[in-house]
Amino acid sequence: MPKPHASRKLYAVMGNPVRHSKSPAIHRSFAEQCGIDLEYRAIEVKAGGFAAAVQTFRASGGQGLNITVPFKLEAYALADRRSARAQQSGAVNTLRFESDGAIYGDNTDGVGLVRDLVVNCATPLIGRHLLVLGAGGAARGIVGPILEEGVTRLLVANRTVSKAKALIAMFAGHAEIDACGFDALAGGRFDVVINATAASLQGEALPLPPDIFAANALAYDLMYGEAPTPFLQWARGHGAARISDGLGMLVEQAAESFFIWHGRRPQTHTVLAALRGDSKQ
């Protein structure tokens, strides 16, 4: 792996697939804002090769990494020190290489989602009824930060109910959280419905009742693309007043990673606006 220019700080995103990641463009924009000489790469890693790829990157002068699917659990295991939110979620999406040789792991997904909802989507969560669809790794990273916003109720629904119950057990002590299967959603009304499943990636429809949206409800998909995801298309036709994909979450979690690495918090609205413009071309 080639070393960066002597004065340039080297970072990257690792995942599989990762070649179409928007993270390099996002972090380059942040660096330009903050006057930081930065090189940011996208590195596709084969299954079974994650730990070796991290060490190779570090040896080449790398100072930190963003981690995307399917390596967030491996990143958690690799970290020597972990933030409270990483420990809470059991997954890591940001690594920072420390001067003493240790690897620090954090998870910025949840705070990125909350900032996108509250700021960019103008949807405060305090006092709201929220539904999270899915109980996998994506859901694990967002539940804690959502609960910290003071929601009245958070329901986690999953095809396999035992997985939803296992997820909420990680947050024992929060009276606001509960779990169920998709078939138990009939009659419920939610202010925000978040799709944290992989259904949109696979073009699948979720078995949801048609009346889950409260008045002025927001439907949110953690996935994003050039067109609305299948979930968002369904939501728009079944009572959701507003829809949003996860592009804003991507930008906001990247800003938190940038802060962890550089101690500077970049402005996100111009970067998100530019990406939204690009996605329409």
Task: Please characterize this protein's 3D structure.
With 281 residues, this protein is an alpha/beta fold. It folds into 2 domains: 9-107, Leucine Dehydrogenase, chain A, domain 1 (Rossmann fold), CATH 3.40.50; 110-247, 3-Layer(aba) Sandwich (Rossmann fold). It contains 11 helices and 12 strands. The protein has helices at 23-34, 50-59, 72-78, 84-89, 109-120, 137-147, 161-169, 199-202, 230-236, 247-262, 269-279, and strands at residues 9-15, 38-44, 62-67, 81-82, 94-97, 103-106, 129-133, 153-157, 177-180, 190-195, 213-221, 242-244. Strands 2-1-3-5-6-4 form a 6-stranded mixed sheet, sandwiched between helices. Strand 10, helix 8 (199-202) and strand 11 (213-221) form a beta-alpha-beta unit. Helix 1 (23-34) packs across helix 10 and helix 5 packs across helix 6. The relative contact order is 0.13.
Q: Structural class from helices and strands?
A: alpha/beta
Residues in β-strands, percent: 15-25%
| Secondary structure tally, helices | 11
Our Rg estimate from Cα atoms comes to 19 Å
CA distance, first residue to last residue = 33 Å
Number of individual domains? 2
Mean pLDDT: 93
